[in-house]
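note to self: dont lose this again. the chain is below, predicted strucutre after it. 356 aa total, dont forget to put it in the shared folder this time
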Amino acid sequence: MSAEYATFGLAPAMRAGGVLADGAYQIHRDFVDFVVDGRPLLFRLSDLDAVSPLASDVPPAIFTEQVRGLLLEAEAPLPGGRHIIYGCPECADLACGAVTAVIDRDGDDYIWRDFAWQTAPQADLELNGYHGTGPFRFRGEDYRQALGALLDGDAPGTRRRVLLIGARVAVLARLAAALRTIGIGADIAHDADGVPAEELRGYGAVVFGRAVGEEQRAAVRRCFERAGVDVACVAALAPVVPVLVAQIEQALDRGPVERRRLTGLAVSGGEARVEVTSPCRVRLTAYRLDRLNRTRTVDVFDGVLEAGGHRVPLDTGAVKGEAFVVARTAGNVLVAPVTRGDGRDGGENGGDRARH
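---
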């Protein structure tokens, strides 16, 4: 069976959760992604909202069985030697659809071939095959080393708890409830003094409300530094729960920029400037506070963008006053405040200003 060698690797990835404009929730999932020739395999496929079977919230016994299956040390879960490569992030039900492939051994090599979209036990390659994707031939030693490390307990760690610090307890309580609904733990506190180091190490991000002064923020950061924790610090843009959730999801995404689809967002001059690294569906939602401090929400764009930079015109009514835009793909999310003027003050990644 001929095929050129491809490199095989693994990398931590996430499917960003969130509170959507219609009030629905999207579950946060951390998983280990497959990297082929230095690029996430998911990016080679059509724009999918999917995760690999190597998710952090999978019970250890099932996680081990998934790894053993990829190593061909366990029976394939589907007929024809087919393995699930990516599945539904909400329920993992085959009926929702999954990307599958046949995994073979050829001497010491492993080969992934016949990729297909599958919703039933039998795959229809002619109708639903990913023609032009694969086959991929991986050197056995590298393949076994990468997957074997997961069995040895070297799976990339995740910290899915968030510490919320602020004066508006009602807003923090609503935020904490929303985060727990999408699978992220949240605790509310006045500061981090006296919190044991091992407990601080469980947090992936700390969120500061707008009323928290710089002196208090610096004291919290020092607590994490003493505990040896590189925690993401989020300065809350507004008392708007969906915006805050999106900011937190952005902060929790610590992967390299080259392995993200959505890499830039800035909003000014009546348009949003968006940067994507591969073709994908992008949704833009505007949130603004009216004169009575009520939140107004408008979906301003939903479509597939090709790789590169894009300028998306916005309805001025949707972003007038104090307003924010959330950009979302299946894998990651960015947040940017709406700035006024000619756009030169917005930067090419306004969402990164939420990090400290």
